[in-house]
Amino acid sequence: MQLGPDIAAVVTGGASGLGRATAQALIAAGCRVALFDRNADIGPGVAAEIGATFCHVDVTDQGSVDAGFAAARAANGQERVLVNCAGGSVGGPNKTVARSKEDGAIVPYPIDHYRATLELNLVGTFRCIVGAAAGMMTLPPTADGDRGAIVNTASVAGEEGQVGQISYASAKAGIIGMTLVVARDLAAEAIRCNTILPGIFDTPLLARAKPQVKAALGAMVPFPKRLGRADEYARLALEMIRNPYFNGEDVRLDGAIRMQPR
């Protein structure tokens, strides 16, 4: 797909981190971009700064997502590109079942945290895929023969979840598992779907970490020995969008790290 002024894109989680970097890269390529984000405090300012359209969207709410697509299309036209970066973990790290350090009591994982994490990451991603793909199906194919391209964000935790990451790892594994099926489901409509599995990236999730903590995390990476940068994610996302033969793939972007149990 040739990126340019005739291409509209939606980036979820677009007000910060990986989403913002990808939105900026798409805008630099000439695309019209809408940011879906539930952070209404920073979203409008980010959109104004980078030249995007801000849509206040909570991907866990169907009505919010539907309204977001309607607003994005009113501003920029029907999107051919969707990049799903919205996500995170609800609650702190918890084992499937643990023992209290205070009194040894058996403590089950809080199911509401598990369900909420899956709703945000897995269901939210699928909800946006369905909404975007339905719109893409109304478009004629591009010169490359595709109607649209979807890029999802999973995590290396989806393959090597660490102790206490059960809900996040489950959600990201689900995104990995849906990639090929979505690509096959939408193949007849010429809509492609790929997923990126980031390793340890320097994103707002690590903003509060001390410099020595970030340095230690970076030292775990075989090469290059540092945290990943958001622009590196964006570069891979754009290649997945541009390359018409890139379809149904889950690609690690992690500096060759393999996560240990702890």
TrEMBL record:
<comment type="similarity">
    <text>Belongs to the short-chain dehydrogenases/reductases (SDR) family.</text>
</comment>
<dbReference type="InterPro" id="IPR020904">
    <property type="entry name" value="Sc_DH/Rdtase_CS"/>
</dbReference>
<dbReference type="InterPro" id="IPR002347">
    <property type="entry name" value="SDR_fam"/>
</dbReference>
<protein>
    <submittedName>
        <fullName>3-hydroxy-2-methylbutyryl-CoA dehydrogenase</fullName>
    </submittedName>
</protein>
<dbReference type="Pfam" id="PF00106">
    <property type="entry name" value="adh_short"/>
</dbReference>
<dbReference type="InterPro" id="IPR036291">
    <property type="entry name" value="NAD(P)-bd_dom_sf"/>
</dbReference>
<dbReference type="GO" id="GO:0016491">
    <property type="term" value="F:oxidoreductase activity"/>
</dbReference>
<keyword id="KW-0560">Oxidoreductase</keyword>
